[in-house]
């Protein structure tokens, strides 16, 4: 089966890189990315949407491949001046990246929706896939730490380098998913969950009213963000034991998603720990853009077998 309407939920660098492969593996226009906005925040008076921008820059092939965020060839002269003035410099904004935040902030101040301004920015960058923020109103990810109280996600993740141990993850605000998101899920043939952090990248999307119920009626295939007991990037490897008491593993991720999944793609060797769900084992590490395409093609082929 060749899929013509696929929705992928996404957040983080791994999610964006997998989407790059999926967008190239599918026919033009077949992919809709529903992107986490729980990381969004206001910084230096600007509306910052880290996951949306990472997806946008990655799909446009203008992102910094080594860092995984921001634009390639970026400079940081503006932040150097912020630092000189004694301003908050804990969250780096590149000089060209600032244009994205300035135009977005201006549009939102004039009443344009985040969905609309994202579509306009993506079109300007030549992004072929449809990129949809999960909501047009705030749904903030908050990290309840063991010793330091509750921290907004970016303060915990960037400002504190994800060091404070996590007691719980919760979300402030219950905005509705946008009509565009719900319509895309309703029309799709397949839902993909990339190798994103389930707690802070995917759960915010699933927390919105109507999303989990809509996805429950669709075949859902996820790719594990844990390979051989370790996260490739980010804090998931420590979050799983902190939040569940279990070791970090692909099976822990499968248990978290539970009955939502019809299939699960894991690193070779991890499949023996997973029961009760269809599993495809392969090399899931995305070292290059060719790896992204290969993993996307294998995931889509697996999904096609499941829905045949």
Name given to the CATH architecture: 3-Layer(aba) Sandwich
Indicate the mean pLDDT: 96
Task: Find the CATH topology.
Answer: Rossmann fold
Q: Approximately what portion of the residues adopt beta-strand conformation?
A: 15-25%
Low-confidence stretches: none
Helix/strand class: alpha/beta
Globally, the shape reads globular
Give the class-level CATH name: Alpha Beta
Query: Which strand order do you get reading across the main beta sheet?
Result: 5-2-1-9-10-13-14
Helix/strand order, N-terminal first: EHEEEHHHHEEEHEHEHHEEEHHEEH
First-to-last CA distance? 7 Å
Indicate how many domains the architecture comprises: 1
Q: Share of helix among residues? A: 25-40%
The CATH superfamily title: CofD-like domains
Cα Rg: 18 Å
Biggest sheet details: 7 strands, parallel
Q: How does this model look, in words?
A:
There is one protein chain. The protein contains twelve helices and 14 strands. It has 308 residues and is α/β, with parallel strands linked by helices. A hairpin with a 2-residue loop joins strand 11 and strand 12. It has a single domain (6-307), classed as Rossmann fold (3-Layer(aba) Sandwich). Helix 1 packs parallel to helix 2 (50-59), helix 1 (12-25) packs across helix 12 (289-307) and helix 4 (97-109) runs antiparallel to helix 5. The strands form four sheets. It has a seven-stranded parallel sheet with strand order 5-2-1-9-10-13-14, with helices on both faces. Strands 7-6-8 form a three-stranded antiparallel sheet. A two-stranded antiparallel ribbon has the order 3-4. It is globular, with a radius of gyration of 18 Å.
